[in-house]
Amino acid sequence: MFLLLPVRPSMEELERAVAVARRRMEDERALELAAERLAAERRLRHQLLEIGASLSAEPDLDRLLGRILSSARSLVQADAGSLYLLEDRGATGARLRFLLAQNDSCEAPAPEGSLKVDSTSIAGMVAMTGRPLRIDDVESIPANAPYTFNRSFDRATGYTTRSVLAVPMTDRRGQPGGGLQLINRKRAGGARLTFHEDLAGQVVPFTDRDEELLRALAAQAAVVIENSRLVLEIQQLFEAFVRAAVTAIEQRDPPTSGHSARVAVYTVNLARAVDRDSSPAWMGVGFSSDAIRQLRYAALLHDVGKLGVRESVLTKSAKLYPYQDELIRERFFHARRALQLAAVEERLGDAVSGGRPDDATMTELKAAL
């Protein structure tokens, strides 16, 4: 940056020039910061889009839940987190089922138990109100707050929880479906927390921007979870239909009861063996989980044609009943007689065409009859 000054500037002119230069430097720095913020915003938006696409492409519900929680933690640099889904208990009321936990700094607990949807816990409070809850330090939760922080995990493992951010997962109708609870926003994203050192230098409070990002992700996650559950329900419904069809088939043909299930087991085992085999004979032949599921359904229903066969045919102990053997013999007898009569008529016509048949011709015709 250059400024044109008089040959012999006065002090006032120098001060004005310095002020102009300072303002220009401040403006340039402000532009640089704005550009950095814009680039960071674009990266976050792109990351959200990638996360949404990744979640939509995951068909397995368990893996989907794991991706949701790990994506949420990565997005806001959380050291740990847990995921809850709402389950309806009928007359006893809805509860939050603890399904998944992740932790970068110690072993995460195995999912177990459930929580009431009420104000006594952080996750329950969020699910009940449908609003996020951000706590900078759990040690500073007001005494008059309706909720408390459950310290059982910290006591059992030596972990130390400071900052918490919990958001609800609401479906497309705005109804709560579960929640995400993230713990300890790390100052350095990839670092592992060391609790023998000053935790204040490693853990910072979650920000307004973190809350905004997590709410956006939770909204996507709720829709994807709902879709995954619908697909699972459809699969379960079809599975029930297949079981009912197999039961109907076996009731039509009791001696072969269990045959369809055995065929399905052998078929699936053979398909998996081929899928694992790397020999040249099976090179390029493979079965995905969807293909194996379809193959199993086909094996279970391979005898579905029995539903259209008369029960008297399915349940007979021999190939044919005696009266059926007699009917078949009669059919052949009548067929033979019909051919004989046709031959006699032909010979008789030939004989009559030349006038009255002689004795030899009549004798031959009687022999044919």
Structure description:
By secondary structure, the protein is an alpha+beta fold. The protein has 4 domains: 10-57; 61-220, GAF domain (Beta-Lactamase, 2-Layer Sandwich), CATH 3.30.450; 253-315, no CATH class; 322-368. Helices cover 54% and strands 12% of the residues. It contains 10 helices and 7 strands. The chain has helices at residues 11-56, 61-76, 122-129, 152-157, 208-252, 259-276, 289-300, 311-315, 322-353, 359-368; strands at 78-87, 95-103, 114-116, 133-135, 164-170, 176-186, 203-204. Helix 1 runs parallel beside helix 5, helix 2 (61-76) runs antiparallel to helix 5 (208-252) and helix 6 (259-276) packs antiparallel against helix 7. The longest helix has 46 residues, at 11-56. It is elongated, with a radius of gyration of 41 Å. The model has no long low-confidence stretch (mean pLDDT 83).
Concise structural overview:
The chain is an alpha+beta fold. The chain is built from ten helices and seven strands.
**CA(first)-CA(last) distance:** 130 Å
Shape: elongated
| CATH level 1 class label of the largest domain | Alpha Beta
Under the CATH scheme, which architecture of the largest domain would be assigned?
A: 2-Layer Sandwich
Secondary-structure-derived class: alpha+beta
Count of the separate structural domains: 4
Low-pLDDT windows of residues:
none
What is the overall number of helices? 10
Percent strand equals 5-15%
The CATH homologous superfamily of the largest domain corresponds to GAF domain
The helicity comes to 40-55%
Predict the CATH topology of the largest domain.
Beta-Lactamase
Computed over alpha carbons, the radius of gyration is 41 Å
- Average pLDDT reading: 83
User: What is the makeup of the main sheet?
Assistant: 7 strands, antiparallel
User: What are the secondary-structure elements, in order, as H or E?
Assistant: HHEEEHEHEEEHHHHHH
Number of DSSP strands? 7
